[in-house]
């Protein structure tokens, strides 16, 4: 969750700090009003940076090219007025894909039962990389729960996660089929 996010949106927003956090605070409300949720904002590159925005439809339906174009137009207009990024940059709006990053508390609930890889900012139980099955979310403190490949369970505080993403498996492909009902 970004520092500036209202508590009622806590499970729908990724955690971002610095410029990415300010961009999230600026862009999340108008994107939410359009019926979308931001999955991740990433600003990368030096000479001509790329601002990558990954988004989902709030209704759980698959996000398409028309959706990405609509978000891009809205974001471009806001960034042209607010001008939070110095210099020229490239805007890229996309879906999170099947092997999506897990960036929000709700992702750990939605994708329970699927395989994921997690890297932390500091060692937990002597290691920084974990692979296993998502078991859900421990609420206090907010932490991802995983069953590791060796059968042990680990709880990783969300604030300690550097990156986390689903692993492409047959079960994940089946769960993300467009004709499959959403939970």
Automatic annotation (TrEMBL):
Pfam family, one: RimP_N
Domain of life (superkingdom): Bacteria
Keywords assigned: Cytoplasm, Ribosome biogenesis
Compartment annotation: Cytoplasm
Residue ranges annotated for the Ribosome maturation factor RimP N-terminal domain, each copy included: 27-99
Ranges for domain Ribosome maturation factor RimP C-terminal: 102-169
GO biological process: ribosomal small subunit assembly; translation
Main location, first listed in the record: cytoplasm
Cellular component annotations (GO), alphabetically ordered: cytosol
Family to which this protein belongs: Belongs to the RimP family.
Functional summary from the UniProt entry: Required for maturation of 30S ribosomal subunits.
Alphabetical list of HAMAP family matching this protein: RimP
Protein name (record): Ribosome maturation factor RimP
Organism from which the protein derives: Elioraea tepida
Native organism taxonomy: Bacteria, Pseudomonadati, Pseudomonadota, Alphaproteobacteria, Acetobacterales
Designated gene of the protein: rimP
